[in-house]
């Protein structure tokens, strides 16, 4: 490739800033070029990085000429700007034209499907394009590949994620994504083929680590059931379930998400409302009506009691931040030596004092940094095309990369029983 220049687009986003900072921990002779529409937001990050490692500049990713100039000759382009349904297309197209490798932590189904459709174009360009390289998807896909490696036949794959209280640290792109996965169509894999469900309708209880314990989660629209069948085409069912902690946040996001789906509330107004609430402002009366509708449904399903909801609302009203608890878990069932077997992996710890799961930005950014390490360790020309994590990131190499970017080994996963 003739250069060791790494380009970050959308570098000022919370998750991308973490990815940059933690990639720097791994060391190496790299030049980091940080681009954002508001580069002044990168000043503090630049001060924390080793002197001379990184530079920051302004870039509008929809400016084709500016984008082409920014990525020319890069060893890797990392897209950290969302929502990916709007940002991935132009950046991937530019990378194909410039023939430079690409990596993102895309968690939207539509843009994932579009990216996969570019496989032949990427092969023709002679470059790898690594998509879905975050926590979920990303880390979860590697955990699936690890667990499935213990089986002779894979029948069912279940992916679980739970995100804790992120008050004050959630960007608009994340809120956009949450509203889309909490209501609307949900592509999943059932009885050996793709089917369409409705997000957040089907629920189940699962035992999670990181202090969460037995937790209700909701089937949700996420890329894992779309990409994992490529590696496990004979699996009967591949599902993704997600949730928020504490549980009343599920009702809040579901109520507002349904309002958007039904056309009762424009997406931008819904995001405005949630952004206000997450920064300890009251928000719109219309938004609170939708929230109360969603909270009532939690009581009906048994996910929360009225007393729990009253306590939650009282604390939230005075800006109380709940202890952060988040987790990933995968459960793969199939046959081993002819015997039905379940193999699970889950993250063991989260919250203050941890490294990998301090919050959602830490989990996604750290995973992204580790995927970058694995990708850059490969010889140029080794791989061409579009790839999801389960197809290229060998589990033990990924775990070692997590350690190289600062993650304690004991935080990476535990075997769930």
Q: What would you say this structure looks like, in words?
A:
By secondary structure, the protein is of the alpha/beta class. The chain has two domains: 5-134 and 358-411, NAD(P)-binding Rossmann-like Domain (Rossmann fold), CATH 3.40.50; 139-346, Dihydrodipicolinate Reductase, domain 2 (2-Layer Sandwich). The protein has helices spanning 14-25, 43-48, 64-71, 84-98, 109-116, 119-125, 139-148, 172-182, 224-231, 248-261, 267-278, 285-301, 306-317, 360-377, 389-392, 395-404; strands spanning 5-9, 31-36, 54-58, 76-79, 102-104, 128-130, 153-163, 185-190, 193-198, 203-208, 213-219, 237-244, 327-336, 339-346, 385-387. The strands form three sheets. A seven-stranded parallel β-sheet has the order 3-2-1-4-5-6-15, with helices on both faces. The termini are far apart.
């Amino acid at each position: 490739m003739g250069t060791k220049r790494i380009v970050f687009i959308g570098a000022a986003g919370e998750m991308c800033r973490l990815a940059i900072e933690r990639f720097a921990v791994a060391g190496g002779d790299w030049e980091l070029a940080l681009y954002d529409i508001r580069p002044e937001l990168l000043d503090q990050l630049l001060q924390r990085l080793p002197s001379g490692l990184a530079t920051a500049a302004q870039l509008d990713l929809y400016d084709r000429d500016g984008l082409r100039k920014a990525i020319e000759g890069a060893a890797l382009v990392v897209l950290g700007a969302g929502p990916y349904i709007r940002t991935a297309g132009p950046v991937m197209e530019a990378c194909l034209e410039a023939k430079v490798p690409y990596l993102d932590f895309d968690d939207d189904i539509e843009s994932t499907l579009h990216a996969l459709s570019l496989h032949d174009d990427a092969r023709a360009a002679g470059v790898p394009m690594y998509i879905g390289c975050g926590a979920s998807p990303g880390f979860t896909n590697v955990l699936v590949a690890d667990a499935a490696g213990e089986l002779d036949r894979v029948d069912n794959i279940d992916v679980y994620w739970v995100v804790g209280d992120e008050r004050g640290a959630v960007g608009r792109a994340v809120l956009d994504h949450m509203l889309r996965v909490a209501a609307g169509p949900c592509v999943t894999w059932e009885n050996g083929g793709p089917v369409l469900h409705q997000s957040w309708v089907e629920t189940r209880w699962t035992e999670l680590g990181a202090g969460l314990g037995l937790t209700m989660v909701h089937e949700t629209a996420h890329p894992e059931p779309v990409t994992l069948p490529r590696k496990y085409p004979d699996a009967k069912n591949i599902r993704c379930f997600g949730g928020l902690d504490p549980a009343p946040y599920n009702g809040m996001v579901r109520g507002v998400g349904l309002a958007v789906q039904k056309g009762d509330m424009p997406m931008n107004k819904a995001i405005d409302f949630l952004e206000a609430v997450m920064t300890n402002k009251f928000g719109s009366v219309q938004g609170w009506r939708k929230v109360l509708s969603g909270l009532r449904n939690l009581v009906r399903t048994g996910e929360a009691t009225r007393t729990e909801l009253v306590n939650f609302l009282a604390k939230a009203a005075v800006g109380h931040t709940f202890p952060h608890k988040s987790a990933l878990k995968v459960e793969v069932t199939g046959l081993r030596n002819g015997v039905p077997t379940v193999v699970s992996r889950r993250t063991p710890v989260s919250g203050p004092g941890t490294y990998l799961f301090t919050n959602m930005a830490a989990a996604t950014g750290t995973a992204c940094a580790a995927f970058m390490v694995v990708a850059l360790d490969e010889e140029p020309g080794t791989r061409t095309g579009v790839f999801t994590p389960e197809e290229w990131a060998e589990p033990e190499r990924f775990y070692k990369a997590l350690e190289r970017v600062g993650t304690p080994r004991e935080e990476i996963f535990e075997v769930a029983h």
